[in-house]
Amino acid sequence: MATGFTKNRLEKILSGSLSASENVEQHLSAIDKNEKNIRAFIDIFADDARKKAKEIDAKIKGRTKVGKLAGLTIAVKSNICISGKRATCASKVLENYVAPYNATVIERILAEDAIIIGAANMDEFAAGSDCTNSAFYPTHNPLDHERVPGGSSGGSAAAVSAGFADLALGSDTGGSIRCPASFCGIVGMKSTYGTVSRYGLIDMGMSLDQIGPFACDSSGANLLLSAISGKDKFDQSTYASAEAGSGAHADISKFTIGIPKEFFAGADPEVAKAVKDSIKKLEAKGAKVKEISLPAVKYAVPIYYLTMCAEFSSAMQKYDGLRYGFPANVNQNLVLAVSEAREKSFGKEVKRRVLLGTYITMKEQVDAWYTKAIDARKALSHEFDSAFKQCDVLIGPTMPTLPWKIGEKSNDPLQMYLSDILTVSANLAQIPAASIPCGMSGKLSIGLQIHANKLQEAKIFAIMKALEE
Amino acid sequence: MAEDYAGVIIGLEIHLQLATKAKLFCECPSDYRNAEINTQICPICTSQPGSKPMSLNKTAVKNLLKLVIALNGKLDPGAPIAVQRKHYFYPDLPSNYQRTSKPIAVKGKLGKIGIWELHIEEDPGRYDLKTGKVDYNRSGVPLVETVTAPDFRSPEEAREFLDELQAITNYLGNIRSEPGSMKVDANISFKGGKRVEVKNINSFKGVYTALKYEIVRQKNMFASGIAVEQETRHYDEGQGVTTGMRKKETAEDYRYIPDPDELPLVITKELIEEAKKEMPELPRAKVERFVKSYKIREDSAWVVCGELELANLFEKLAKEIDPQKLAFWISGPLKKQLNYRTLFFKESGLRESDIKTLSSKFIAGEITDKVMEQKLIEMLNAQASGKHFELKLEEVIKISDSVELEKIVKQAIASNPKVVEDFKAGNDKSLNFLAGQIMKQTKGRADAQAVMQLIRKLVQ
Question: Would you list which residues of chain A are within 8 Å, Cβ to Cβ, of chain B?
Fold first, then answer.
């Protein structure tokens, strides 16, 4: 993987050797050529992108100060609100919903002179792990068109991997950035919960959701993260410290790398080997390696699905056919009208999660399920806390398997849920984690995942940099 | 005849809008009354996909704490205000869940009425059933809900409590006082019977009427041998009756969950101290003090102390005017005219100097009650129509000169011979006509009693 890719491009734009307009045209022509095979986008903003590029070029020519993302193209997941554009969430419910405001991250990237190239495909309302749950069409893995790109931010990852955009924004509730980054052979990061404002990110699991960057390399991810992170009065969970995610200065020769055995338990041998080979590389650079155990990880999937579905069912309550989605037939009892509209509007996986979440928050059920999940989540977080007392980072595979074929898991939701086993813990513990390519299996890429303690993104970037060298 | 309220059990849930500039979770203005439909809205209070609530409005919290303190609620320093989501589908609720906190204080008391709990929540929008339109200007306006124990034994007790509560919030200035800013749900049952909830009563006066109606309705059902079922009823303000809404067989399940977007706000010791520091002398304490130091009657003291500005006016004037007579005047004639116009003294526009002149002249016997009332009405009417009004009493001073009065009476008798004849023929009432003529002629300056005595004397 070419390192410094994003930075080189940015330098070219700033020096004038590549204009922002030329950069946009390069991406648009790649889209023209290959989008029909990949289907990374729901909407492509060619005209807006060209217009914005001209403005930036004028600024550069006029020697006006430009932002740190000047002229770089960015694909944005379709659950992030861009004022005046559709925010579809790849759902029939929001097919015609035009966002009346910008998400905070959009305000920030625009202020840094980024160019938004399109709205990327995803699993409907982010409910899915392979981007086949889009209500419109599945996205294909650019490395192997027969296979899934991972999900739910599959369109964002595929756009970067296919050369349709320099960078992309995704959202990660249980691995939705790291999984497609791993499958598409790029870098993706979910930073500490609260480092990036969620204002304008359409809710999935509010205590888990985090917006994050995709890039070809770690410095690109770092650059985008530093642009979007920081305090926001519109999201109470955001940290006061600005740019919580930046920096890669840490010296990895002083690191202790924890290898939780549970991370390798169900992993494909080929995947496990590639990850272990990379760990050896880090060891060679002076890092200490320590085998540890995180027993609660085996409960991470049920804890995650209970927590997420409870929050998801609450968030989805507003889509009632009166305000969004297929219009309800109001000439009947309100509950019937709303039920009918919701039945017609939602996809299968969304319905499954709404029903599960509704069930486990009912008065008779809440203590047996949701309350227990909250307690178990605390226990899991505590285990990670303890691990970070002895280790700087924890490393394992991002996904236990290689990308599967499109449609292969569509009828087996449990198998799909289990593929999230290695990614959901970071969301539950609200700690940062990133995926970086660490090897190939034929055409397919293998992703390595690095976890660090809260607000220690710098350690993750340092490891990624070392692996890229 | 006093009503028979044996066995009546009443509890109230009182929703009041907290006085703030902005809404509870966003920066939109909270006063929606004169705004065009859907002009005071933003992505947050319309719950646009992706929006998140801002942290709880600090003024709303402080105003809530003041009410808690006034109702002697138990506050737990360091405890968080935990916002929850209460889920139900309704067109006025943009997210189909309402943000409502867990109880902020429990176990309060006002007089002999127990307070179960107080909590903060957001008002929904306004849904117009006729047009099917929703106005979200009200969506997100902060509310405090006060839940009383079922301690009321009659509608009168409920009215007394609400009067005091109204006085408290008037003193604290922490609650909106405009029409439509309060809503009461009343639970009414007879000992051993099923509980009926009357919803959406929009005025304190309405509570009294609704309770009276509902008690009679339930009594009539008992009398006819029909069992009262547990149900929710609607109060029809225009008709003063309650009508059936839905039978409540099982409690609704709102699927409460902690709001993941709203970080718990800690009620610190400092916050409590700050609220305490701003607490004025409350109505109950003021009434006690007035009764003790001014020797006024307790019932007039409650009326005088029902509004802070009125109580302040009393204290000021009582330095120069006989307090007992003054209290009687304020709680009687003045309050009658204000109530008639549903005005607070503060809103009436009445000038303190005018009030002082009018009440002192009346109490000193220099003007008659007719003149006093007439002048009050003129002043209030002038204020209501925005006209300038000068209080002049020189020409309306009571005719206390008996010679002058006798002259007037004689004249009236002379010019109404028919009336005198009628009287002599045995029609005693004809003298009233004569007295009326004289009162009209003197513009009320004559003392009615003295006039009557004079007529009887002179007509013989």
Answer: 79-81, 87, 89, 94, 97, 99-101, 103, 198-203, 205-207, 233-237, 310-311, 313-314, 317-318, 320, 322-324, 330, 334-335, 338, 358, 361-363, 366, 370
Q: Quick check: B447 and B426 in contact, CB under 8 A?
A: no
Q: What is the pLDDT of residues A301-330, one digit of tens each?
A: 999 999 999 999 999 999 999 888 888 887
List Cβ neighbours of B455 (8 Å cut-off, separation of 6 or more): B409, B412, B413, B431, B434, B435, B438
pLDDT of residue A101: 98
CB within 8 A of A37, min separation 6: which ones?
A140, A145
- Give me the residues of chain A with pLDDT under 50, please: 1
Q: If you classify domain B402-459 with CATH, what class do you get? A: mainly alpha
Q: Give the nearest partner residue to B48 out of A100, A198, A233, using CB atoms.
A: A100
Cβ pair B207, B35 in contact under 8 A: no
pLDDT in tens, chain B (460 residues): 457 888 999 999 999 999 999 999 999 999 998 999 999 999 999 999 999 999 999 999 999 999 999 999 989 899 999 999 999 999 999 999 999 999 998 899 999 999 999 999 999 999 998 888 999 999 999 999 999 999 999 999 999 999 999 999 999 999 998 878 899 999 999 988 899 999 989 988 899 999 999 999 999 998 898 888 888 999 998 888 998 876 554 568 999 999 999 998 999 999 999 999 999 999 999 999 999 999 999 999 999 999 999 999 999 999 999 999 999 999 999 999 999 998 899 989 899 999 999 999 899 888 888 889 989 999 999 988 888 888 887 777 777 677 778 888 888 888 888 888 888 888 878 888 888 888 888 877 788 788 888 888 877 7
Domain chopping of chain B, boundaries: 8-277, 283-396, 402-459
Residue type, A447: G
Which range of residues forms the domain containing residue A67?
1-469
Tell me which chain B residue has its CA closest to the CA of residue A80: B50
Looking at the complex, report in whole angstroms how far the Cα of residue B260 sits from the nearest Cα belonging to chain A: 6
Measured distance CA(B400)–CA(B407) in Å, rounded: 13
Beta-carbon separation of A100 and B49 below 8 A:
no
- For tokens 């919030």, name the residue: B169
First to last CA, chain A: 10
Measured CA to CA, the distance from residue A58 to residue A55 in angstroms comes to 5
In the three-class reduction of DSSP (H, G, I as helix; E, B as strand; rest coil), residue A201 is classed as strand
Q: How many residues does chain A have?
A: 469
Sheet containing A187-190: order of strands: A41-44, A115-120, A73-77, A167-172, A210-215, A187-190, A433-441, A444-452, A393-397, A256-260, A288-292
pLDDT at A1: 42
Contact A120, A168 (CB under 8 A): yes
The DSSP secondary structure of B149-208, one letter per residue, reads: -S-B-SHHHHHHHHHHHHHHHHHHT-B--STTSEEEEEEEEETTS--EEEEEE-SHHHHH
Dig out the tokens for B242 from the structure: 């309650």
Do B50 and A338 lie within an 8 Å CB cutoff? no
Q: Which residues contact A295 (CB under 8 A, 6 or more apart)?
A: A262, A383
What's the CATH code of the domain at A133?
3.90.1300.10
- The residue written with tokens 């009354």 in the block is B33
- Per-residue DSSP letter, B286: H
DSSP string covering B7-23, please? TEEEEEEEEEEB--SB-
Closest by CA position to A156, among listed A224, A233, A246, A227: A224
Structurally, chain A folds into a number of domains equal to 1
- Chain B residues with a Cβ under 8 Å from any Cβ in chain A: 43-44, 47-55, 85, 87, 89-91, 94-97, 132, 253, 255-257, 260-263
φ/ψ bin of A51: left (φ > 0), alpha (ψ from -120 to 50), beta (otherwise): alpha
